[in-house]
Write a structure and sequence with these properties.
The chain has about 100 residues and is an alpha+beta fold. It has helices at about 35-45, 55-60, 70-85, and strands spanning about 10, 15-20, 25, 30, 90-95, 100. It is about 35% helix and about 20% strand. Helix 1 packs across helix 2 and helix 1 (about 35-45) packs across helix 3 (about 70-85). The longest helix has 14 residues, at about 70-85. The protein is globular and about 35 Å long.
């Protein structure tokens, strides 16, 4: 049995992200995410309050060698918001700059 380290849990007002077990919860209900969606959400939550550009997110989540466009980020953010339901409202679009996770 894997023990969860509570100090690794990332939280905001609605979302709880458990990197040790790759689980995400919104209002204490588990949400099934792909590994890319999980990593994208983790990146936003680790940098809560900071606006991250699409390029920042691409290089962090997809890697430096990724050859796709920055629209990939927009598509994944939209899917992530949809899956997170009410928790998705904590991911803000910063027009012309990127995305930011709020509390």
């Amino acid at each position: 049995m894997t023990m969860v380290n509570p100090t690794n849990v990332l939280k905001n007002s609605r979302i709880s992200l458990h990197p040790d077990t790759c689980q995400a919860f919104v209002d204490k209900k588990e949400v099934n995410l792909t590994i890319t969606e999980f990593n994208l959400l983790a990146c936003l939550m680790k940098n809560k309050g900071t606006t991250l550009s699409r390029d920042d997110l691409l290089s962090t989540v997809w890697g430096e060698s990724y050859q796709g466009t920055d629209r990939t980020v927009d598509t994944h953010i939209n899917r992530l918001r949809s899956k997170l339901g009410n928790g998705g409202f904590t991911i803000l679009t910063v027009r012309g700059a990127g995305y930011r996770m709020e509390n």
